[in-house]
Amino acid sequence: MSFAVDRLVLTPADIDLARSPLAGHLSAETYVLGAFNPGLTRLANGNLLMMVRIAEALRHPLRDAHVHAIRWERRDNGVGRYVLDAWPLEHADTADPRKFLLRDGGWKIMALTSLSWLLPVELTPDGLAIVTIHYDRAIAPAHDFQCYGIEDARISRVGERYLMTTCSVSPERHSTTLYSSRDGLDWTFESIVLDHQNKDMLIFEGLIDGQYWAQTRPLGDLYFAYPPGSGWRAGPSINLAHSPDALFWKPWHKPGIRPHAATVATARIGGGTPPILTDDGWLTLWHGVEPKEIVGIYRTNWSLLDKDDPSIVLRTEHAPVLEASAELTEPIQDLMYVRDIVFTTGIVDTGEHYVVASGEADLACRITHIPKTRFNGS
């Protein structure tokens, strides 16, 4: 399905690495591998705010028979710096351009070809033009558990506060971290809120019976089979949790959104946009992944959840609402390193339609205006 307003609003060419948190730290040249997966919210002045993941990568990671990775570390004086680590190529699998696997570890161990930090980008109220890029408010690693970067912000407005979940990456843990803000621009680090590997924590934009609620997506290497003939497929699913304060979370005992056995397009799923309350229930956009080659095909799907019990799915569709667009990325073909990926991460209600923000091809930020009637199907 095509939409009248659907375009890329931010690409790597828009990012000034001279103002990067990494600037001046490394002797090696870096470049913007991707400016993508933006959290989205509306500011008090009416403008939209994207919190963009900037994946800053080494221009030449392979040299001297080693593959190199960027890492943040805290020095003895408490000041942080960025350094390079070198791994022998003979022990590394570099087939995936986004990461490399280290062999002979006894289990799956990987490192990243880039380090990610978060950049606030202010847009016009329709989301179609850049107003200001707030380099002075960038969010960069500041703790040991973020030494390999901060990824994939999701922003929810709950009452008078903005709450932003992020994924913090390190050898210590692959955790979900929470930031809060009163204005959507100046953010305060709150805490680690999920200590296990969880890539997609989305806080509902509103309370249910006085409690904060969130979608989570814990990952692992082992999933138990559903019985033969089941309508569900075993694998990563979107779970639920609730909290009295958005800091301490208790998993909900009922399942959330699960992969359907009827379609391979959602063989693996994960949360996309923070659920927003509509007249009919909580609208949530999420991603489904169809296995293909190394990365897979990422599409955006949607579900409508019961307003009092979000474990109840009222409506959903197998057909995606958004797919990757070769037409949109054609002008930046020379930068493409993966394809078939749209990763939706933000939504704002304008009254007449939704402004939806996505990462396109792990490379750029895409804004789509989706009519509300699109979600009236069954």
How would you portray this structure in words?
The chain has 378 residues and is an all-beta fold. It has a single domain, classed as Glycosyl hydrolase domain, family 43 (Tachylectin-2, Chain A, 5 Propeller), CATH 2.115.10. It is built from 1 helix and 27 strands. Strands 20, 21, 22, 23 and 24 form a 5-stranded antiparallel sheet that branches. β22 and β23 form a beta hairpin. The mean pLDDT is 95.
Please name the defining characteristics of this protein.
single chain; 378 residues; Tachylectin-2, Chain A; 4-stranded antiparallel sheet; globular
Under the CATH scheme, the architecture is: 5 Propeller
What fraction strand?
over 45%
Number of domains: 1
Helical run tally: 1
Beta strand count:
27
Mean of residue pLDDT? Answer: 95
Q: Which topology does CATH recognise?
A: Tachylectin-2, Chain A
Task: Please tell me how large the radius of gyration is.
Answer: 20 Å
**N-to-C span:** 16 Å
User: Which structural category fits the helices and strands?
Assistant: mainly beta
Q: What is the succession of H and E elements?
A: EEEEEEEEEEEEEEEEEEEEEEEEHEEE
- CATH hierarchy class name: Mainly Beta
Largest sheet: 5 strands, antiparallel
